[in-house]
Amino acid sequence: MEKITLNVQGMSCGHCVKAIEGSVGELKGVSKVKVNLEDSKVDVEYNASEVSLDTIKETIDDQGYDVQ
Amino acid sequence: MEKITLNVQGMSCGHCVKAIEGSVGELKGVSKVKVNLEDSKVDVEYNASEVSLDTIKETIDDQGYDVQ
């Protein structure tokens, strides 16, 4: 199990939290995702043999946010 | 047909626009609703014989925003 904290710009409200936690949380191999609005950070726990970090980043990007 | 511009605090992103325009737009008697994020304003055109201003304000409030 891998743990990473991503910096994500553009998250501003509860809808943003739902959009990101919902979409990333649905990915096979992701066991935990938590958005921190104040810090513009997203904590993700995932199994690298099931899902790539690129896929996680793309999923957030697809929701309209800028992953750094 | 009445026209009003409401000051609404807490709208911050595209999801907020959808939440407000969707819910207010579904009210019977509302013919137009437009959110302006930059100005924190919501323009509404409605038929006062079909829907009250209080109902419109309550609908926005129910989405989690502060109508002033």
UniProtKB/TrEMBL annotation, chains A, B:
Annotated signal peptide: none
Record SUPFAM superfamilies: HMA, heavy metal-associated domain
PROSITE patterns from the UniProt entry: HMA_1, HMA_2
Subcellular location: Cytoplasm
Domain HMA: 2-68
Entry keyword set: Chaperone, Copper, Cytoplasm, Metal-binding
Protein name per its UniProtKB record: Copper chaperone CopZ
Species of the source: Robertmurraya beringensis
Gene (name only): copZ
